[in-house]
Every structure is written in C-alpha cells, then in structure tokens.
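Archive entry. Fields below.
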Amino acid sequence: MALLEVKDLKIKFGGLTAVDEFSISIEKNELVGLIGPNGAGKTTVFNMLTGVYLPTSGTITLDGQDIVGKRPYDIVSYGAARTFQNIRLFKDLTVIDNVKIAYHKQMKYNMIEGIFRLPSYWKEEKIANDYAIELLDIFDMKPYADSLAKNLPYGKQRKLEIARALATGPKILMLDEPAAGMNPQETKELMETIDLIRNKFNIAILLIEHDMSLVMGICEKITVIDYGKIICVGNPEQIKCDPNVIKAYLGE
Amino acid sequence: MKNKNKKSYLINGLALVLLFILLNVLIKNNVISRYYQGIMVFVFINVIVASSLNLTIGFLGQLALGHAGFMAIGAYGSALFSMYIKEMALPPTALLITSLLVGGLLTGIIGYLIGLPALRLRGDYLAIITLGFGEIIRVIINNLKITRGAHGLTGIDKLVNVTNSFWIAVVVIVILYAIINSRHGRAIMSIREDEIAAEAVGINTVKYKSMGFTISAFFAGIGGGLFAHYMAYLDPNTFNFMKSVEIVTIVVLGGMGSLTGTIIASVVLTALPEMLRGFAEYRLLVYSFVLIIMMIFRPQGILGRKEFSINGLIKHSKNIIKKTGDNAEGGEL
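PREDICTED_STRUCTURE:
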C-alpha cells in the first residue's frame, strides 16, 4: 500500500468548493510534484493534508493510519512534516534551537527531570544537540548553528526550514513552493538539497511549485490541478504535452 | 557541554552564597538599616512576581495584565492556610513553605482554569480578558466573608525576612531558568516566535500555552504568599490594576525574555520610588520621566532578550583585553 493515500478529498468554504475529488497516492521514497495556476487550490490541499483545514469529505491515509480530523501537531507524529510558502522560522532563536524544537517529540524527559537536571535531561539534551549539529552539517549549515535564524540569507533560511521539518523524523516531507522568491542560482542549490534529502533520508517528498524548471527537473510524477480539480496526472513529458495543462496555463 | 554547564552552575552558586554573606555582614553591621531591609524584601517579592510574569509575556509571548489577581489569590490562599494550621505549631520555616506552596498551587489551579478560555485569544484581546479576570478576583475577595472583605485580613504571622525571601527568590529564578533551558522552555518560546510553525513541527501549542500560563500563575502565587507573610495584613485593594501595571512595567523595563533583566529592573523600580521620597509629590513625575527616557533610548528593555551571566562577562572582558592587547602590538609596529 502506498505511503500516502488520498481519496476524493473535498473542501467547501461556505458555498465555494475550493478542492473537489482530489486523489493522490505517493509511494515510499517517491518525489511527486503538485502544480497548477495561481488559486488552483494547491496550498489548500496542503493544509488539509497537514491538519490545518478539516476536509468536508474524503479520506487521507498516512502509512495505513487515517489522519483526517487530527490536529497539526499530531499529524507530525504520524510522520508528515511541512514547510511554508512564506518562510516561518523561529526568527529570534538560534539556528540550532530551531532544529532542537522540531526534535521535541523525540525527547521524553518530563519537567521535573528537566528542572532538577537529572541524568535523563543531560543524556537526551546531548542526543538532541548532537543530532541537530549532524543535521545542520548535512546541509552545510554547521557554521551558522549559533546565529539567529533571522540573520541568515534567504536561501539558507529555506534550507533551515527544510532541516527543521526533517528533524521531526517524517516519512513524507511536504514542501510548499520552496523556490518562491529565489534566483536561478539559489533554485539550483535547492534542487541539490532536495536530491540530498532523497539520498540521505529515504523519505517521500510532495512538492508544490511554480518554478517549472524545478518541477520538470526533479519530479517523477506530477499532478496538475486547476479550479480545485485534477486535470492531469503523469510524468513530466506527458504533462508538457497535455492539452488541458496547456489550456490551464496559457489559455485557449 | 555538560562539564562546562556544571562549572558555570558552580560559579553562579558560589556567587550567590557570596552575595548572601555580603548582605548578612552589611545587615549585622547596621550598614543596611531596618528600613532598607524592608525594601529588600519587596525587591525579592517583585523579582519573583515579575519573573513569573516574564514567563508569560517574554517567553510565551502573550500579554497578560491580570498578574496582581494571581498574586492576590496566592496571598490570601497562603495567609488563610497558615492561619488555619497555626495550632499545629510547625517551625516557622516549615509553616511558611507549606503555606506558600498551598497558595502557589491554588493560584496555579485557578490560573489553569482562567488560561483555558483566555489563551484562545491573542494580543490585545488576551490583555483585556486577563485584566478583567484580575479585577474579578479582586472584587470577589472584596466580597467574601472568609477574606473579611474590605476590612482586610489581619492576624497573619510575620514569617518573612531578608534571608528566607532571598533564598526563595533564588529558588524561583533557578527553577524558571531551568524550565526555559529545557525542551519545555524551547516549546514555550517557539509559540512566541510563530504559533503556526510550532504546530507544524509537532508542538502541542494549547498544552504548552496553558503550561506556561499555569507555571507563571503558580510563582505569582508564591510571590503573593511572601507578600502576605511579610506585611501580616492584606487589603484587597493592594492588588488592583495599578499593581498589575507595576509588574508589567518591571518586565518591560528589564527586557521581555530576560530573567536577569527582570532582576535588575525589580531592584531599580522598587528602590527608585523609595529613593525619590524626598521629592514628595514630584516623585511620580520623575518616575514616569525615567521610564519615558528609557523607552526612547532602549525600547527593548535594559537587557533585551539577553541574559547577564558571569561566564559571559569573563568572556567579554577577555575579548576586550585581547583586543587592547592586539592594538598595543599594532602600535609597536
């Protein structure tokens, strides 16, 4: 069975059906792209998958477990992590603290153990610290560990957001327009980062993107939506030639 | 990391003991008079109450304006409890500590209950609802029989002195510091930074918000209990809105998100009005003037979000020495 199985997802805001009959299935270690013109409902789909919105109907199964109606922080422990379209870092905290906060759920010591600095505190804090340093090292961000997140350059902030999402130990990583606002050089670097994640972490990635060079370059499977409905599913070559897709992007 | 931390804990512990010995010597030799000792106790009470509020405002990032209400619950709760168990003839310290804990726990429970609905709100709305709850608490105390309403509560044992209030303040600060520098504290700070992102990385924001708020209320209750057992008399109107504002002022002046800043601001803002007593009516004017000047030149508060630390100071001075040394060498060339 697929890692993420979404069937007939539908959401209505009042009288407006924003997303309808949305289905997608993502296998382990697969990289899937979700594209569509502005306002097509991509981010709405994301918000339903991560528990921000409650779908009107439909099912979402992650690794065999139904996650519809779960709170966002709960869905994280089922194994879905996300980044945001407009970067949302903990700006006034250090880079390493950003990562450690995401590691929160893997740490088990309780407040009493924390206050009295019992051995379990030292042990788990050390594990968290080592883990965070290791993770930052993978993304070449170790030198920035102690600087404030807001002081990083834009591309590095994106990387940190991805690293933070990975620190939650996800099975699937959802990236919401990671290349938004990036120049071609940074986009290229981002592609390398995504490749790196796939090689090192063995997780599935769902990618929303506007930047066609990025999507066509790295995705194996692409789903195109327009006005909340799927208009085409296939590999990059098929998508490029599909008349419905061309119509949606360029008009008649 | 571990050893370095433990060393710094040791240094700070030693510094505290030295400070305590210094205070005691000064008191013994009558350098610090009774009057100043009284001010010192108020400083320690303010340190406790303001740093507990700093957990809500500075670390959790939620503006709460009803802290005097929590202080009142702690004050009345612990005072009534200590009067109730007086016959058991406990030693004074034990009596003080148990009644403080009872007052603190009572405040924590009520804080939790108030926090559940209130923390659904944010920013100005939360400020107003906490302000409202603070006033409700005061009005209820004013009308209850058991608290003797507006007559005020008398007959409380005076159990607090410079020594025990100093050490209780130390314990409170240490606990708050320990919480902030643990996974729970990081979760609390992540809510201040970005609530949506915190949820997205697996932080149960509702849980940690009410946790922060409850701890904050608990320690405000402890501070209130100290106040009760120092004054030996309680009047509900002590805990009015102006008291809440006073505590918020300490937090803002010291720096939201800095415990050491709160300590410094508590000393300054408790001592300042006393020192200005000579100016009679003008002292409130001077007091506000000092605050305005402060907000113009240092809006983030005395320490901002930084913490003052002995280690940091040593490092800093080493850097300065190194720099001047480098300059001197440069001069020779």
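CURATOR_NOTE: The CA atoms of residues 40 and 162 of chain B lie 7 Å apart.
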